[in-house]
Amino acid sequence: MEQRIGLIGLGNMGNAILQGILGSNVVPGTQIYVYDTHPEKGEDLNKSDGVNNLASARDVARESDIVFVAVKPNVIVDVLNDIQKELKKNTIVVSIAAGVTIKTIAKSIGYEQKIIRVMPNTPALVNAAMCSITPNTEVTDEELKIVQELLNCIGETEVVPEYLIDAVIGASGSSPAFVFMFIEALADGAVKGGLSRKQAYKFAAQAVMGSAKLLLETGKHPGELKDMVCSPAGTTIEGVHALEEKGFRAAIIDAVEATIKKSKSMAEN
Ligand SMILES: NC(=O)C1=CN([C@@H]2O[C@H](COP(=O)(O)OP(=O)(O)OC[C@H]3O[C@@H](n4cnc5c(N)ncnc54)[C@H](OP(=O)(O)O)[C@@H]3O)[C@@H](O)[C@H]2O)C=CC1
Ligand SMILES: O=C(O)[C@@H]1CCC=N1
C-alpha cells in the first residue's frame, strides 16, 4: 500500500492497530507516523520497526494520507481542532472514539473532510478484532476499501450506518469485558470443583473460543448448537436451568442495553 499512515494515541487500541498493520507488512514501519503524549511509546516502535515517532499530532496529520485518531472520547475534539489546519483535502481521518459522531468530528475538521468512524475491540491485539466501519459521504468506495484492507490486518470488518454504531459497541466494542467476566466466573466455578486456577482459565477460555468458532464456521443457530450440548437428563441442561433461573440472558441483554444507552448519551453531549 502506498498511503502514509498516521496514528495519534498509542494506547490499547492505537497500539493494537499499529501492531496489526506492522505484522501484516501491508505498510512498512517507515511509512507510518505516530504521536502519543508519552513519547517513549513511539520511541520503542522507532527502534523496533522504523516507525516515525513525531513530536506532535499536527506533524502526524501533515505527513499522513490516512490518520487514525485513537485517543479517549474526552480529548478527541481538542486533538481534531489541533490537527485541522494540517489536513490535506484528501486526507482520511479515522476515529475509533466511542460516542463521538461524524457530525462532531466534521465540526472540528470541516464538513468536506473525508471521515470514517470505526468501532474496533481489544481482540485486535491478537488479530481477532471485529470492527464496524462507517464512512461519511466524502469517502469514495475505493478509499473505504483501502481502510478496510488496513483494518483486516487486525481482524474482520462490517460496514454499518452510523445510527447502529451504539449497538455495535454493545455487541462487540464493549462485550470483550463481559466475556472476560464470563470466563473468570466459569473458571471460579471450576476451581470450586477442584481444578487448578491455571487449567481452569485454559479450559474456560478455549471453550469460549471454540464455541464462537463453531458458530461462525457452521453458521448454525446458537440455540441449535446449545441443544447439541444438552443430553437428555444430562449435566448441561442442569446448568442451563440454573442460568435461566438467575436471569442470565436478561442480565446480558441489560448489559448491552446499558452500553448502548451510555454511548447514545455520550453522542448527545
Ligand atoms: N479500549 C477499548 O476496548 C476500545 C476503545 N475504543 C476507543 O478507542 C479510543 C482509545 O481508547 P484506548 O486505546 O483504550 O485508550 P488509551 O488511554 O489506552 O490510549 C490513548 C493514548 O493516547 C494518549 N493521549 C492522550 N491525549 C493525547 C493527545 N492529545 N495526543 C496524543 N496522544 C494522547 C494517552 O495518554 P494518557 O494515558 O496519558 O492519557 C494514551 O497513551 C477511545 O476513544 C475509545 O472510545 C474503541 C473500541 C474499543
Ligand atoms: O468503554 C469504552 O468507552 C470503550 C469503547 C468500547 C470499548 N471500550
Automatic annotation (TrEMBL):
- Recorded superkingdom: Bacteria
Is-annotated flag, keyword Magnesium?
Answer: no
- Could you tell me where this protein is found in the cell? Cytoplasm
Q: Does the keyword Calcium apply?
A: no
A molecular-function term among this protein's GO annotations: pyrroline-5-carboxylate reductase activity
Q: Where is the signal peptide?
A: none
Q: Which GO terms describe its cellular component?
A: cytoplasm
Pathway entry: Amino-acid biosynthesis; L-proline biosynthesis; L-proline from L-glutamate 5-semialdehyde: step 1/1
Which reaction(s) are listed as its catalytic activity?
L-proline + NADP(+) = (S)-1-pyrroline-5-carboxylate + NADPH + 2 H(+); L-proline + NAD(+) = (S)-1-pyrroline-5-carboxylate + NADH + 2 H(+)
Q: Where does NADP(+) bind?
A: I8, G9, L10, G11, N12, M13, A70, V71, K72, P73
What EC number(s) does the entry state?
1.5.1.2
Name the keywords, alphabetized: Amino-acid biosynthesis, Cytoplasm, NADP, Oxidoreductase, Proline biosynthesis
Q: Where is the Pyrroline-5-carboxylate reductase catalytic N-terminal domain?
A: 4-99
Domain Pyrroline-5-carboxylate reductase dimerisation, residue spans = 162-266
A GO BP entry is: L-proline biosynthetic process
Give any Pfam family that matches.
P5CR_dimer
Q: Give the NCBIfam families listed for this entry.
A: proC
Q: What does this protein do?
A: Catalyzes the reduction of 1-pyrroline-5-carboxylate (PCA) to L-proline.
Q: Which family does it belong to?
A: Belongs to the pyrroline-5-carboxylate reductase family.
Q: What is this protein called?
A: Pyrroline-5-carboxylate reductase
Task: Look up and give the organism this protein is from.
Answer: Gilliamella apicola
Taxonomic lineage from the root: Bacteria, Pseudomonadati, Pseudomonadota, Gammaproteobacteria, Orbales
